[in-house]
């Protein structure tokens, strides 16, 4: 029987529990004033994920006093200022109010083992929830907080002949009335089918159109939100194929794209990061990109796993081998950022205006650093956190 938590997700969600069973107690800021919150973030401490809001990057430090307490590994999404959280079998909706998150509407209960990992919003009344444990995309009304339909993708599983009817739908994106759903196509915990696969679904009828594939790289998405796929200013969709996080010999990672006006992979484009000679890191190579965000003008900001910086054998608790990089999709280059490397269980980031916010656990501490691409300047550990940064989003 297949498992639905991939190697990187397992590392992220389980090693945190080894680090702490109690909350940290840093200096705490005053309670937030009754004003608009600019960010929602989550941290992992022990067996829980704590989700809370804060005003801006000038708060100095953050505690968990006003946080929601969720099962470890709960994923958060933002749509029109509201926060949606899934603990893989439930979906909750919250609104920021007086410095706290207050639940709105019903809790959507999903089938056992749903593994609801990604939510893509089509409108105020329609959102798609990829359930990698079911092989289905569940359709919900995010305003009424009700399930309104589902799309069964069993027919697209490559393991059907062996009784595997689940192609593991993962991250998705909508362009021009089509929902593009990455399929992980897992064979076992550490083995995926070779190649990249994406299902196309008509958002008017919610009927599958086709599946497109590419043999050059593998595994079109990990089974957790990682900042892709995304659309650039040209209208092209980029998928990062994670190739089993470096655990599977014989498959390659890299970026693919589907150009504006097209519905098949661009045969002229494939960018494999492992082929780049990286300057400034031990071994000069990466095995895969982890969390990432599109910054604009063809530039992606991401954490690259640097095998040369890891222990032998790897020490997933203490190794800090995830290095922030700027990736240029257009000229196929990678530039190391002047930020310390972080552990894999504390690596998140988001875009805020023209800036990139990095949530990290470094030798200097845990919290958020800010990179200003326009001036190539940094504000290191500008906000300290109680707990390991797990996710951060602008509230917009």
Automatic annotation (TrEMBL):
Q: Where is the signal peptide?
A: 1-20
**Native organism:** Prevotella scopos JCM 17725
Q: What UniProt keywords apply to this chain's record, in alphabetical order?
A: Signal
Please verify whether the record's keywords include Signal.
Answer: yes
Q: What is this protein called?
A: Lipoprotein
**Does the keyword field hold Aminoacyl-tRNA synthetase?**
no
């Amino acid at each position: 029987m297949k498992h639905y938590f991939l190697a990187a997700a397992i590392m992220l969600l389980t090693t945190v529990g080894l680090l702490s069973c109690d909350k940290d107690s840093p200096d705490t800021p005053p309670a937030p004033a009754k004003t608009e919150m600019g960010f929602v973030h989550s941290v992992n401490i022990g067996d829980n994920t704590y989700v809370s809001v804060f005003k801006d990057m000038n708060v100095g430090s953050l505690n968990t006093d006003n946080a929601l307490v969720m099962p470890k590994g709960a994923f958060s999404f933002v749509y029109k200022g509201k926060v949606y959280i899934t603990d893989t079998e439930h979906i909750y909706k919250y609104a920021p109010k007086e410095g706290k998150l207050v639940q709105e509407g019903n809790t959507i209960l999903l089938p056992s083992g749903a593994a609801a990992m990604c939510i893509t919003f089509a409108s105020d009344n329609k959102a798609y929830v990829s359930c990698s444990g079911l092989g289905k995309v569940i359709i919900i009304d995010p305003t009424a907080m009700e399930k309104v339909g589902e799309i069964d993708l069993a027919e697209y599983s490559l393991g059907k002949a062996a009784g595997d009817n689940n192609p593991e739908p993962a991250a998705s994106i909508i362009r021009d009335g089509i929902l593009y759903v990455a399929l992980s196509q897992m064979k076992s915990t550490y083995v995926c089918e070779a190649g990249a696969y994406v299902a196309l679904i008509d958002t008017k009828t919610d009927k599958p159109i086709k599946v497109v594939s590419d043999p050059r790289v593998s595994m079109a998405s990990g089974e957790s939100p990682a900042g892709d796929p995304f659309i650039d200013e040209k209208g092209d969709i980029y998928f990062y194929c994670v190739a089993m996080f470096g655990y599977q010999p014989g498959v390659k990672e890299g970026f693919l794209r589907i150009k504006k006006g097209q519905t098949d992979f661009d045969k002229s484009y494939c960018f494999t990061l492992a082929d780049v000679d990286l300057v400034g890191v031990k071994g000069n190579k990466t095995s895969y990109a982890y969390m990432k965000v599109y910054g604009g003008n063809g530039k992606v900001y991401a954490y690259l796993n640097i095998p040369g910086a890891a222990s032998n054998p790897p020490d997933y608790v203490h190794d800090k081998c995830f290095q922030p990089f700027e990736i240029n999709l257009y000229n196929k280059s990678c530039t190391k950022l002047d930020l310390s490397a972080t552990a894999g269980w504390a690596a998140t980031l988001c875009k805020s205006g023209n800036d990139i916010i990095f949530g990290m656990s470094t030798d200097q501490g845990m919290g958020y650093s800010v990179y200003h691409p326009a001036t190539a300047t940094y504000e290191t550990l500008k906000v300290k956190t109680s707990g390991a940064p797990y996710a951060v989003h602008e509230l917009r």
